Amino acid sequence: MATADTPRRGFWQQVGRPFRALGRGIGRVLDVLDLLRLIIGIIRGVAWLFRSIGRAVSDWF
Fold first, then answer.
1. What residues contact residue 13 under an 8 Å CB cut-off, 6+ apart?
2. What residues have CB less than 8 Å from 16, skipping those under 6 apart?
3. How far is it, in rounded angstroms, from Cα 42 to Cα 40?
């Protein structure tokens, strides 16, 4: 029985560290991709706004 002072030495405990690190890395990549998707969405919205304003102004002239 392991106490709180001694680290666990089981197979799955030792193997779990790389997978945990990989999961954190993948999580960061997904966060960056979500941020890029948000930025691209904002840029597309602003471009759509300018295009619609341009169409409205061009109809007047």
1. 7
2. none
3. 5
pTM: 0.61
* Closest of 47, 9, 36 to residue 55, by C-alpha: 47
DSSP 1-61: ---SSSPP--HHHHHHHHHHHHHHHHHHHHHHHHHHHHHHHHHHHHHHHHHHHHHHHHHH-
Percentage of residues of the chain with pLDDT beyond 70: 82
* Site of tokens 């409205």: 56
